[in-house]
Write a structure and sequence with these properties.
17% strand; 5-stranded parallel β-sheet; 573 residues; single chain; 5-stranded mixed beta barrel; alpha/beta
Length: 573
């Protein structure tokens, strides 16, 4: 407590009953209406009903705290109760007239309500030059606040200016009339020194003025935005009428109108629609239309044919998936269980951070066929992208529009063919993609990485495309062939090489009927013994899969076709 504050005995009773107010701060010489339903405050009113009774209006250290001694602030205001109204349901409303600040010396009792011993603050000392300067500063800040905040009128400044002769009264009046929070008003009340109180008040007024300035700027921008939107709507309506008139005179304008209708009729993301409209506006200029018209039209057509919102619904049935895998493939073993586990987790909505399915195995073991089956099980359209022959990143990410061969990359090309943005995309032979000119592997990683592919940006398109709903399937010989940056996001399924027994079963039951049909032969024309197939497996193929075996059977069918067509009986063995 500062030395220039005098606490004196005044006309307070020895023991003052004290109200604990948690939402209102009463200042000296001010009138405040208070409602409360706390039992201790109601009990105080019942036992102190003398019209001339002096009561204290205390403040809480923590407005949300309990009715206990440690939650009672050290400063209060002596008040008279001007009126009291019982409102029912345990609620009362009173009107308090603030008299003087008082410092709590001792809490005599806290039950059933607070009773305290207190000293009053003396206001008899005249204000010095320092106080007068701070009053002038507070008045100026108050004028700035009134100018910026519509909640206050000029009358507020006039009322305060009537009390300039008393710095304490002036400060309390401003603190009471400005809509500060409970905590800020409590700070002002607890400053008995007038100079310190006015200094704090100036700081609070600066903060409130800054807030009002920001609020006004936001409101101004909002109004400007609304006016601009209304004006834009009106101008677009006028422009539509003008376009209809011009269509009869300018065929190119009719084309522009058709493109605009297609853009507005397709569900495009806001950024994409904005870019498409911008290109149509460029196309309206005759010079641009003559020089770049065809490329702009091709760009707009690409935007409109891509599946921005079109999706297919997964129809995953684990029983059906198990039957299809068992019927189409021989001896998948643990690979089948891994695939069923992957599908089960997807059906339950989990595994969102592992959307990439990796099928690993030697050539000829059915990696591509298995990927096609998975897409069929999920009910998704399959897009196959072979990495063989990819020389630079433009093949994946697209060629820029300034390039003579401008076109999108293979990923967006595949999505356009699929017609949906959630197909199964097979990246076949990812192990054949080596870092070359332009780093094609980096471009592919951006498309596959779950953390980044929701905003995949093709160089030709120039706007982000969401690939996060696509199911990526990659194939390679072994896990070691997968890029290290991608490996944490891959769920690997390993296919082992086939044994002779499995190769024999696949050749007799699957491959041979297929190649016979492909070569125009029938089972009546020829028959194949298991011994012949075993000889082909042992002496003519050295592989883990059955690709070379199929080639040998095709060679056999071609030779048999010659013999069948040359034989009189039409039958060979």
């Amino acid at each position: 407590m500062t030395d220039n504050v005098d606490w004196v005995d005044c006309d307070l009773p020895p023991i003052v009953p004290l109200l604990l107010l948690k939402s209102t701060v009463v200042f000296p010489l001010q009138v405040a209406s208070v409602q409360f339903s706390r039992g201790a405050n109601l009990r105080l009113l019942e036992e102190n009903n003398d019209p001339d009774q002096i009561v204290g209006a205390g403040v809480a250290v923590d407005p949300d705290g309990s009715y206990v001694r440690r939650n009672l602030g050290s400063m209060a205001v002596a008040c008279r109760i001007l009126s009291r109204i019982r409102m029912g349901h345990g609620t009362a409303q009173i009107v308090l007239q603030g008299l003087r600040r008082m410092r709590l010396k001792k809490i005599v009792a806290s039950r059933p309500y607070f009773r305290v011993e207190a000293d009053c603050l003396s206001d008899s000392e005249p204000d010095g030059p320092d106080v007068q300067d701070r009053i002038a500063e507070a008045i100026q800040l108050l004028q700035d606040l009134v100018r910026l905040d519509d909640r206050y009128s000029d009358e507020l400044v006039k009322v305060v200016q009537l009390n300039l002769e008393n710095g304490s009264r002036c400060a309390d009046l401003i603190a009471d009339m400005v809509q500060f929070g409970y905590a800020e008003k409590k700070q002002v009340l607890e400053k008995p020194d007038v100079s310190a109180r006015l200094s704090l008040l100036a700081e609070l007024l600066r903060r409130e003025t800054a807030r009002a300035q920001v609020t006004r700027e936001v409101e101004a921008k909002t109004e400007t935005s609304i006016e601009r939107t209304q004006r834009e709507t009106f101008l677009r309506q006028e422009l539509e009428i003008i376009r209809r008139e011009l269509e009869e005179l300018d065929p190119a304008e009719s084309e522009m109108a058709t493109l605009t209708e297609r853009i507005e009729g397709k569900q495009l993301p806001p950024l994409v629609a904005e870019e498409a409209h911008r290109e149509v506006q460029r196309l309206r200029h005759s010079a641009v239309r003559a020089g770049e018209g065809s490329s702009i039209r091709a760009y707009i057509d690409w935007m409109l044919c891509l599946p921005w919102e079109e999706v297919t619904k997964d129809r995953l049935d684990l029983r059906r998936a198990r039957r299809m895998l068992d019927r189409r493939y021989f001896d998948l073993g643990g690979a089948r269980d891994r695939l069923l586990e992957f599908l089960a987790v997807r059906k339950l909505g989990g595994d969102t951070r592992l959307p990439i399915l990796g099928i690993m195995g030697p050539p000829g073991t059915g990696r591509t066929s298995l990927a096609s089956t998975i897409a069929e099980v999920l009910g998704r359209r399959l897009v196959r992208l072979s990495m063989h022959g990819i020389l630079n990143e433009a093949e994946i990410r697209g060629y820029r529009r300034t390039d003579g061969a401008a076109r999108p990359g293979c990923i967006l090309e595949g999505l356009r063919q699929a017609g949906v943005r959630n197909p199964a995309i097979l990246i076949d032979h990812i192990d054949r993609l080596e870092p070359r000119v332009g780093e094609p592997m980096l471009a592919l990683l951006e498309a596959l990485d779950p953390a980044r592919n929701s905003r995949f940006r093709d160089n030709y398109l120039g706007v982000p495309f969401d690939l996060s709903q696509a199911l990526f399937i990659i194939t390679a010989n072994v896990d070691e062939d997968i890029p290290d940056a991608l490996l944490p996001f891959v769920y690997s399924v390993e296919l082992a090489g086939y044994t002779e027994r499995v190769k024999l079963a696949i050749a007799c039951e699957s491959i041979w009927p297929q190649v016979v049909e492909e070569h125009g032969l029938t089972g009546q024309d020829l028959r194949l013994t298991k011994a012949a197939v075993k000889k082909a497996i042992r002496e003519y193929t050295r592989e883990a899969g059955v690709r070379e075996l199929k080639n040998q059977l095709q060679i056999l069918c071609r030779r048999l076709a010659v013999r069948v067509t040359s034989s009189r009986s039409g039958r060979v063995s």
